[in-house]
Amino acid sequence: MCRQGVSSRKHSKDISACRTARGRKELHRGSRPTALSGQSAAPGAASLRFAAGRQLTRVLYCPVRERLSTVAVNGRTYDLDLREDRSLADVLRSELGLTGTKIGCGEGVCGACTVIMNGRAVRSCRIPASRAAGAAIETIEGLAGMDGRLHPLQEAFIRHGAVQCGFCTPGMIMAAKALIDQHRARGTTPGEGEVRRRLKGNFCRCTGYHAIVRAVLDAAGVPVDPVVPAVRPGRYIGSPLPRKDAIDKVTGRALYADDLHFPGMLYAAVRRAGIPHARIVSVDTR
What we know:
The protein is of the alpha+beta class. It is 22% helix and 18% strand. It has 7 helices and 11 strands. The strands form 3 sheets. A 5-stranded mixed beta sheet has the order 8-7-11-9-10, sandwiched between helices.
């Protein structure tokens, strides 16, 4: 890694934000604080003055080549580029093609991106990829056996009709698996109240959660009545049936618009007006 001193006048525009942390100002985006006023500064480093009257020595860090780190995903070891500016969800989806990890809000709120890291359920869209170095990651693609046999949680979700649109299902199952694994390590089973509390951070707009909670309790060994009963041959009309695409949805194989990639695919971004309630005078189509 190389570094060089910079002029505060020339590079002040590089400073995109500063915040108060532990009583002092710290810089972000390409700069790191190394000395405060009254401390010795590195040779050639520039001193910046803020409104608070304190001085902060800024050292500009030059870009470095990517550094590969080892991470275990679903029992297999990979050497991946785990930079701080990438999220764990991005690495799983773009580098390994594990699109069962969905990105809904991108802010760690909806829970669609939930995976298990070192035994704990985490929101992978908010986990810097660098934190995954040396970690053991489990995604929805790793739950079914090598012979294709579904995990008990996946079977329970189908049996109880807990799968509808399926977008939230992988994250919901991974959050539930982390809960059940923790209880099994202690020789206990979760109750309905705990299941509801642990899944409240995983949003579902389809099922109303009742079927999901029953499925989790069933997989944990708590006796519950299934919503989708066994169907006798010839009695399909008027009977509740498992969804035809349920297996794809509980295994993460179901594809949605954001999961599709084609050679030479173009990307578009929405540019919204910066002035609310403005009148459109003209549109430049060049």
